[in-house]
């Protein structure tokens, strides 16, 4: 059996289901959006556009790509190759991309995932929303859309329900967007003049890390520098400040790049075969287990006999079952995962 043919069959089956059940994202104002897609590489092609929803869905059904993207930007000429100017960008959605690296508990190679790094990704989303988006930016939970990226992170879209606010946000310039992400990453944090958001966040962090440090003076003052310099434990405080600034693993390019593409919601991620799954709320996120809940259940009812001859050792848990390079029988979801990760195997038989 040819693995690639089988993989394509599964992608096709998924897209048929997603379109029939109306869950595949149809980007708003579709004729002004650019699309990109890929099979073995992430983005083989871009500069694609569709004049309406029907043509888009027909294309996805026919091609069932392993990676599918839409532009965050709205453009007059999405087909034009080149930058923002050539494409006539006139508006752009705002989204954050959190992509985590391995944690101390992870035992796998860099490009694999496990419950620990996925948990870390989830914690970072909660931190971004509860520490920045709601208290500092004044957004409501309903203005935020959380989407599992399909691999090691999440996309967090800012979509204010209030159209006036949405207009303002979606007309931000590149510099505005840069300012936003720099604020979150603490890049323009000035210890001579600490604003209320960062004061709140840092005091909380100091209290959590070391109860012996008195934060009373810091709570009242904006000029932290002169206070900290008089502390005996000043090095410890500086360290906590640095750690707090570096807490989020945000991909700055997703915010920066005018013509950035982001995965279509409810498409499949070609590296994992997992669903780029949209979540309904923060509570929904807290209960979400990507290794189960981002799996297309029909794939779990398909079984394949394989001979894995790759010398790399691996372990992946999908839907509560562990698979390693010794596995002989795998499900459709595992087939997609191994294929996406370029693991060498022979496909012997399917059931
Ligand atoms: Zn891990």
Automatic annotation (TrEMBL):
The active site is at 97, 99, 251. Keywords: DNA replication, DNA-directed RNA polymerase, Magnesium, Manganese, Metal-binding, Nucleotidyltransferase, Primosome, Transcription, Transferase. InterPro entries: DNA_primase_S (IPR002755), DNA_primase_ssu_euk/arc (IPR014052), DNA_primase_ssu_PriS (IPR023639). Pfam families: DNA_primase_S. It comes from Methanocaldococcus lauensis. GO terms for biological process: DNA replication, synthesis of primer. One of its GO terms (cellular component) is DNA-directed RNA polymerase complex. Its EC number is 2.7.7.-. The keyword Manganese applies. GO terms for molecular function: DNA-directed RNA polymerase activity; metal ion binding. Its cofactor is Mg(2+); Mn(2+). This is DNA primase small subunit PriS. Belongs to the eukaryotic-type primase small subunit family. It is an enzyme of class 2 (transferase). Catalytic subunit of DNA primase, an RNA polymerase that catalyzes the synthesis of short RNA molecules used as primers for DNA polymerase during DNA replication. The small subunit contains the primase catalytic core and has DNA synthesis activity on its own. Binding to the large subunit stabilizes and modulates the activity, increasing the rate of DNA synthesis while decreasing the length of the DNA fragments, and conferring RNA synthesis capability. The DNA polymerase activity may enable DNA primase to also catalyze primer extension after primer synthesis. May also play a role in DNA repair. Heterodimer of a small subunit (PriS) and a large subunit (PriL).
